[in-house]
Amino acid sequence: MKKQLITLVALVAIPTFSFAQTADEVIDKHVAAIGGADKIAAVKTLEMDQSMAVMGMEMTAKNVYVVGQSLRSDVSVMGQQITNVFDGDKGWMINPMAGGNTAQDLPAEALKAGKTATEPQMFHLAYLKADKLPYELVGKEKFKEKDAYNLKVTRPEGVYNYFIAADDYQLLGLKGSSPQGETSATFSDYKVVDGLSVPHTFEVSNPQVPAPITAKITKLTINSPVDNTIFAKPK
What we know:
Layout: H1 2-19, H2 23-34, H3 37-41, E1 45-54, E2 57-66, E3 70-77, E4 80-87, E5 90-94, E6 104-105, H4 108-111, H5 114-117, H6 128-131, E7 135-143, E8 146-155, E9 158-165, E10 171-178, E11 181-193, E12 196-205, E13 213-222
Antiparallel strand pairs: 1-2, 1-13, 2-3, 3-4, 4-5, 5-6, 7-8, 8-9, 9-10, 10-11, 11-12, 12-13
């Protein structure tokens, strides 16, 4: 009887162990779902235009990436343009909404994002191993009523949890904690661009903004030439 019980327990346990996911397996399947490691590594530049809405106010934004090196973000709101730039280990910003019409160096806290800020957010998990960021699989749970894997990542700017769909391994969203406060985002409306699966709708909550922002990609260009002078701080 005892042997039969041990055998039964073993048989029940085998499927559980066989189908258990590790963090690396989840990441690898996620990268494959995006389009594959080689395809992502081939992305050297990326330009993204967005329409944005918050509290009934319409905005537009343009992000230009030289992946792993530079990022320029321009947001147009109420006739004003807010610019943030990361360029190597330097960064600057112009924010007329805060009374600044000249370029100012980014504060040290913002520069902590550094290199990882220059990697498109929807591909963040594909760069984890190359960036040597600590990560672990927390487990499987519900995210927006979908089964998802919760992957915890310690980034330079804070600790983030990424939620990857258990069925198609696309990124559903993230939640983060940094010195600036709690942030969150959801990703949806996936479309294939140049062989890469890219979310075209984002909903973002940020402690610096009083209400969630809904953003939609209106144009996405991969590997187009970029004039590096756009990252230079104006004198």
